[in-house]
Write a structure and sequence with these properties.
Distance between the termini: 26 Å
Largest sheet: 5 strands, mixed
Number of strands: 11
CATH topology of the domain at 99-208: Collagenase (Catalytic Domain)
Strand content: 5-15%
Order of helices and strands: HHEEEHEEEHHEEEEHEH
Helix content: 25-40%
Bound molecules: zinc ion
CATH superfamily of the domain at 99-208: Collagenase (Catalytic Domain)
Length: 270
């Protein structure tokens, strides 16, 4: 996500505007939306990235348009049936067999300041949850923490703090360019976000970095339909770590991997 559920009730409509299909939408027929409408629902954060669906970032308007053309304008997916992988042009958006064992990242010591060790610890716990079930390996390359920026080529992605408070954190998909491969954690994520924890939020964001879509886009009944460019790895899971609770989800505690999340992750990354 992630937006905190209490503010999601107020901010959700605006932030998820582009994501929420109308009640007439079905799982095989997406709601019609013009580029102008789609662009109007995206917003630019402090990094200049275009944000849609709550926590998905794009480097430029050109990338946003490409996403629109492939995902919204030309809906091709179908509910083939809780985990779903980003699926574009007939292929899964995922890491290669080699890269998946070497998912390196840095944690910006200068941007997190006194919160640095808290973030390092939360990233260790959140990455461990995915590593315990799937054939992937995240590596904290701490030697780059003192120069952990969007242009740091020594790592696959960077983890930095942002003062943007319209989301708790945002992430990226495996097909993002280096400059877009960031996990940004909002200062608001360090406040009272119970029943969630920073680790729980990062479990969700790391799911995106592995290619997993928001689970609620699989159901028009969720009220948060995004698009049909996904391929089902398991049956629909309203408790998935990738499902917004406020989108008719059933996860009421912290964001944790369900048994379906685990089997879906193993299916994509054996
Ligand atoms: Zn998300």
């Amino acid at each position: 996500m992630l937006k905190f559920r209490s503010i999601a009730l107020m901010a959700g409509v605006a932030l998820l505007g582009s994501a929420c299909g109308g009640p007439e939408a079905s799982e095989t027929q997406a709601p019609a939306m013009s580029w102008e409408e789609f662009r109007a629902n995206a917003y630019q954060d402090a990094e200049g990235k275009f944000i849609i669906d709550g926590d998905l970032a794009f480097d430029s308007q050109e990338e946003l348009k490409a996403f629109f053309d492939e995902n919204v304008a030309a809906e091709t997916g179908s509910a083939q049936g809780g985990l779903a992988v980003y699926y574009l042009s007939g292929a899964d958006v995922k890491w290669s067999t080699t890269q998946r064992q070497n998912l390196t990242y840095c944690v910006s010591s200068s941007s997190f300041g006194s919160r640095y060790s808290t973030v390092v610890s939360a990233m260790n716990s959140a990455t461990a949850a995915w590593e315990a079930t799937a054939g992937i390996n995240f590596i904290h390359s701490s030697s780059y923490d003192s120069n952990c920026t969007a242009s740091q080529t020594g790592v696959l992605f960077d983890v930095r703090q942002t003062s943007v408070t319209s989301y708790l954190a945002r992430a990226f998909f495996p097909n993002s360019s280096r400059s877009g491969r960031n996990i940004l954690i909002s200062t608001s994520a360090f406040g009272n976000i119970s029943p969630w924890t920073l680790t729980g939020i990062l479990r969700h964001e790391l799911g995106h970095t592995l290619g997993f879509r928001h689970e609620h886009t699989r159901s028009t009944a969720s009220g948060c339909y995004e698009d049909a460019n996904w391929r089902a790895l398991t049956s629909y899971d309203r408790s998935s770590v990738m499902h917004y609770p406020q989108c008719n989800g059933t996860q009421t505690g912290d964001l944790v991997l369900t048994s379906l999340d685990k089997s879906g992750a193993r299916a994509l990354y054996p």
